[in-house]
Design a protein that fits this description.
By secondary structure, the protein is mostly beta strands. The chain is 14% helix and 49% strand. The longest helix has 9 residues, at 3-11. The mean pLDDT is 92. One of its GO terms (biological process) is sporulation resulting in formation of a cellular spore.
Length: 63
């Protein structure tokens, strides 16, 4: 994912499906370096990881 798209998702009141290594995550923070983000698993709020934004994937849900 590009950093600008991650910023849009992070700032949006709408909920988006984002994954990291095939696992659904929440973006907690985007770092000023423009390359990394702090994320956590959707169902495990206590464990956070710093990951490359380019490794995040926006999932498109089919209706």
């Amino acid at each position: 994912m590009e950093y600008t798209r991650a910023q849009e998702i992070f700032a949006s009141p709408k909920e988006y499906e984002v994954s990291y290594n095939g696992v659904s995550i929440w973006i907690d923070k985007l770092h000023e370096d423009g390359k990394t983000a702090t994320v956590h698993l959707r169902h495990a709020h206590e464990e956070r990881s710093e990951v490359a934004v380019t490794e995040l994937k926006e999932e498109y849900l089919t209706q």
